[in-house]
Amino acid sequence: MTSVTHSNAKMTATATTRVLGVLAIAATALMTVLGLLISPADVIQGEAVRMLYIHVPSIWIAYGAFVLTSVSSILFLRGRKRREDRGRHYDRLAGSAAEVGVVFTGITLVTGMLWGKVTWGTYWQWDARLTTTVLLFVTYLGYLALRRLPADPIVRSRRAAVMALISFVNVPIVHYSVDWWRTLHQKASLSVGRRPEITGEMYWTLLYSTLAVTIVAAWLIIHRYRVIRLEELRDEETLAALISSRLDKDDGSN
Amino acid sequence: MSEVATVVTGWGITIFVIATYSIWVVSRGKAIGQELGIGEMEQLDPRKDAGATTDL
Amino acid sequence: MLAETLLVARKDLRVEWRAKIALGQVAPLALLILVVLAFALDANSSLLELGAGGLYWVAVLYGGTLLIQRSFDVETDDGNMDAFRMSAIGAPSLFLGKSLALFVQIGLLELVLGSGIAVLYNVRVADWWLLLVAAAAGTVAFSVCGVLWGAMSAGLRVRATLLPLLLVPVLVPILLAGSRAFETALGVRADAGWTWASLMLVIAAVHTAIGFGAFGFLLEEG
Amino acid sequence: MSAVVEFEEVVAVAGSFPVLTGLDLRVDQGEVVLLRGENGAGKTSFLRACAGLISVSSGDAHVLGFDMRVDRRAPRRYIGLLGHENNLYRDLWVREHVEFRATAAGAAESDTDAALIRVGVSKKLWTVPIGSLSAGQRRKVAIASLVVGRPRLWLLDEPHASLDTESRENLDLILAEASQLGATIIFASHESPLTKGIASRVITMGGGRVLEDSGAS
């Protein structure tokens, strides 16, 4: 029985993720060299612009991860037979993506505050995007808290999926309401169809950093997913042992 | 703090956080894997190995 | 479905009428919050007048959270949720019914709070319509979110701390818009009060729609 | 006779504990089944699985013809479930509560009085908050809330608990009457000497399965 369970289980590492892991480390190293040494200082922002090579990709990755959480949650709720592996697959994906998203949202906040200290002269401004980001952070911390609670796994997964959906719908509402409230932040740094304000080497560095951070995040999500899968496997084994022990005991006593 | 010091702090915190998180995830995976007797690497060729995989 | 919705709402309101938790305990507590907030601002009358809109919504948030918790304590007590699952009443009706009952209760709470603010903080109303529309939209959003998150945390051991943690981030836009709209309605800020009020209406509509569709997923156990 | 409950190799899990471990059972219409077994034998879980309140993780389960693996909500409106808890709103008055349950079950509000009288809740108590009743009276109100919905399948978990002798006999009468009218009754009880009388079949459970079945064909 053990060999059957284990043959469809994901191992703790595969050749693909090994390569991805090495790639992630190399990409981060190159990103550090490019971002801190090779790319020039900005005319206006000076050295502080180097913070954006982390700050901007982090928030993009965080949003990407939360999109992944939401899409997985929809697919989870749509699946009719939720106890089967396909449904639980989406649940695991939602959970691991959300956790990685929270990590990168945290990084966005820290780098943003440091950047603000240099540029605005203060760690915190009640600016639309900072405020939205901190709310995003708290919202998904709540989501993770819900996922950690002791409860029936299916009940918990279903509630978490609903929460992920509501939270995601709420993101633009929060953003626009806070945006109306006040806007101090510089306009979006890089957007499709508009001439980027960051140009030349800085532009390429930012683009490359995004790629590097994406690789790191992908690697993290895959491994986090596996940990959840392994935890479930462990629970299943405990359960199987419990069932067989109940059967043995009852057969013996009667 | 000077601009350079701030930038270095920001990068430092980021790399520290990511590294710590990665190590936590990987070691947790390995710990549970060991508990369950799952090998670290996937069987690349299932025909070669019929038993449990525990390489490295 | 309308009949079922009204049935659920009537039941909840009757429970409240018999127990008098909202009027007997939550409303006085919320009034107390108004007094404490005045202490925090050193009873500075001009500050209180300026901040009345925001302080009102903070007090509503506090009292409303208690009412939401109460609304689901009633259901989890003595296994009542099982009886609901076993009944012929569908999840959408249950959602709407509980929201309606909560709307009435939070509305009453706001009436008490509003009178309290008028007296204690010395405010005058410049635009009654704006005030009523904003209050109504805010109360709808509060109620539907409350029922959603109340069900989300119902039956979990740590719901007393979990509910506010999950609820407040979602209510932020309502608190923000409500504060701004009230400031215009009370004549302390010549702002786009009606724009804020319409944003509140949109938020209320969005959350009602979500709750209508998603509530069933929250009810099922195991 | 048509099968009302048909379980084959049913495994059900609550939290991470297996409460049903391969349960096989068929109950036909009109049967009155007494479930026996020690604490933790799976009686409550079986009743809850029949009501569709816990899901079946493997095996086949049909209740009132509905496949519980496809939609376990479908048969609920035809089922009356009385658990360990009474499912009462303690702030409501007795009559208000039964009225609410009647309407929620799709029955007429006017059946309320008849149900209360049938169960033997004295008229003086109809306008009293449930919270101030004794345990036995509460149990009776809970039974009245069930009777009023006229279920096709009755699932009762220790229904006689906290009732006095007279009320027990009265409940047995109610159940016998319902079964004559075509309802199926499954009830769990420790006090078998008292209740064996109305049961047409006795099933002993243990470890989440059927151990003995007096009516097995």
Q: Count of helical segments of chain C?
A: 8
By oligomeric state, this entry counts as heterotetramer
Rg of chain B is 19 Å
Q: Estimate the helix proportion of chain C, in percent.
A: over 70%
Biggest sheet details of chain B:
none
Largest sheet of chain C, if any? none
Number of strands of chain B: 0
Low-pLDDT stretches of chain B: 42-56
Q: How many strands in all of chain C?
A: 0
- Structure classification of chain B: mainly alpha
Molecular structure report:
The complex is a heterotetramer of chains A (254), B (56), C (222) and D (217). Chain A is mainly alpha-helical. Chain A has seven helices and no strands. Chain A is globular. The model of chain A is unreliable at 1-9 and 184-196 (pLDDT under 50). Helices cover 61% and strands 0% of the residues of chain B. Chain B is built from one helix and no strands. The longest helix of chain B is centred in the middle third of the chain and has 34 residues, at 3-36. With 217 residues, chain D is α/β, with parallel strands linked by helices. Chain D has a domain at 3-87 and 150-213: P-loop containing nucleotide triphosphate hydrolases (Rossmann fold, 3-Layer(aba) Sandwich), CATH 3.40.50.300. Chain D has a six-stranded mixed sheet with strand order 6-7-8-3-9-10, with helices on both faces. Chain D has a four-stranded antiparallel sheet with strand order 2-1-4-5, covered by helices on one side. In chain D, helix 2 (94-104) crosses helix 3 and helix 2 packs parallel to helix 4 (135-147). The mean pLDDT of chain D is 88. At the A-B interface, helix 1, helix 2, helix 3, helix 4 and helix 7 of A face helix 1 of B.
Question: Any key phrases for this structure?
Answer:
heterotetramer; C: 222 residues; mainly alpha; 8 helices; D: 217 residues; alpha/beta; Rossmann fold; 6-stranded mixed β-sheet; 4-stranded antiparallel β-sheet; 6 helices
